[in-house]
């Protein structure tokens, strides 16, 4: 028999084994639509984890971001400040409500939004700042929250990558007015597709529930707070089926084990590549004192886009999938003509040189040694 060497995948969904049990139970209960038993179990866990005023499971992080756009009442003429180095959904949610996006540059040494460059983008039309904690590592939140307070702006955290990560001890997603998490299969804990809206500012709580349930007061009705279940505002179907919640519940119960494994892989890469860094061959992520590491992404930076392409090819020849990340949104085909023309050199640099290494809970020690050896041999 021919032995075919398998590619080391960049990502592979980690399954705890309990998912099917909870889904089975969900089926036996005969209650499959949204806001059922497992949705409530997940809500209780997230509520405790984040201490938010309200948490609501959503069908995706993209949908949770769209909810924040409705909640902040974003409309034509409003401006929203968003980092250019991020996933399309961070901006698309506000573009759907006809906002103008003012793209901000990244920090020099990390992909996160540069808090020192936010204030110069604020105009009388600015309504919100969207921050993205790249790789689950916090933005400079004290600075950002104080700018927002001074100018009366809403702060939305795109916390898609932020499960179990902290800023000065506070969970990411619990700091801004509201935040959005993702449980897409590429994230640390997953439900296939899935997300969470966390509302921290009490002013948005009752509205969030209404938007979540198709613009109706159904949630209040079920709590017995109103005697009519009716259409009260704009909304959509943002809640996932309880089958999705049952899957997520299994993952949440194993969060600690999953995180331990992911962080240990991250640490392995750091330990085994730091010599390359000290020789000036690559740059490794430098976490600031206020950032925690949740093992979501391990990235390095090459010297140039060409060197990155060569390294990707070299790794592919060694059966390793490594991938770059975002193409900057300000010069994307969709937004380039609408962008105000400012160049965003740091965001561009991360677009050109950042490379992510395989990181998932199924990687073996042998896989990791093989990856580290292949990267080191490329630079020899
Ligand atoms: C994954 C991700 C999203 C989108 O999440 P979905 O759940 O797939 O909608 C949005 N923003 C960032 C920063 C992400 O990493």
Notes on the protein architecture:
The protein is globular. The protein has twelve helices and eleven strands. Helix 3 (61-71) packs across helix 6 (205-212). With 380 residues, it is an alpha/beta fold. It has a seven-stranded mixed sheet, with helices on both faces. A two-stranded antiparallel sheet has the order 6-7. The chain has two domains: 19-253, 3-Layer(aba) Sandwich (Aspartate Aminotransferase, domain 2), CATH 3.40.640.10; 255-379, Aspartate Aminotransferase, domain 1, CATH 3.90.1150.10. The model has no long low-confidence stretch (mean pLDDT 96). Helices cover 37% and strands 12% of the residues. Bound molecules: pyridoxal-5'-phosphate. Residues 60-62, 86-87, 89-90, 132, 158, 160-161, 182, 184, 195 line the site of pyridoxal-5'-phosphate.
Which labels suit this protein?
12% strand; 2 domains; Aspartate Aminotransferase, domain 1; Aspartate Aminotransferase, domain 2; binds pyridoxal-5'-phosphate; 11 strands; alpha/beta; 380 residues
